[in-house]
Amino acid sequence: MGSILGKTVGDVMEKNQQFMLQSQQMQLERMLQQQNQMRERMMAMQIARAREMFWWWAAFYGIVVIGALAGLKQKRLGGVIPAVPLTFIVGYQYDNAYMNKLERIRAMADKIMVDEHDMLSLPHGLPTFEDIEAARLNQKEQAKK
Predict the structure, then answer these.
(1) How many CB atoms lie within 10 A of CB 2?
(2) Which ranges does the record mark as transmembrane (predicted)?
(3) Scanning 57, 102, 131, 140, which has its CA 20 to 30 A from the CA of 77?
(4) Nearest to residue 82, comparing CAs of 58, 65, 57?
(5) pLDDT 10s digits, 46-65
């Protein structure tokens, strides 16, 4: 009788462990999916911000160039000088907003992750459960004082 009960309890425990493992795996997959969707939304916001900034820089650049051209008609070369650095700024913003700058940045990041992975390590390494728990308990003690 005892061996039958022990076998049944063992089977239930094994099924419970499998269920818990599947639940944890599903929870992890959901968390990864949520983080990826949040990353995509943040990247979309950055691209939209870059495009908005491009239009402001382009408008400013247009005004400066019109002023520089008006100055050239009056034989003043000083008005053209600001157009040179502004050309680079507007070009950079255009590349950032509408060209393949993000693809180049992503490729460079991939290269860094492969070739220079040591630059990505955290000081003192990855936090462990014990580190986090010690910090939590320390903060709890500080709050009591």
Answers:
(1) 6
(2) 53-71, 77-94
(3) 57
(4) 65
(5) 888 888 888 888 998 888 88
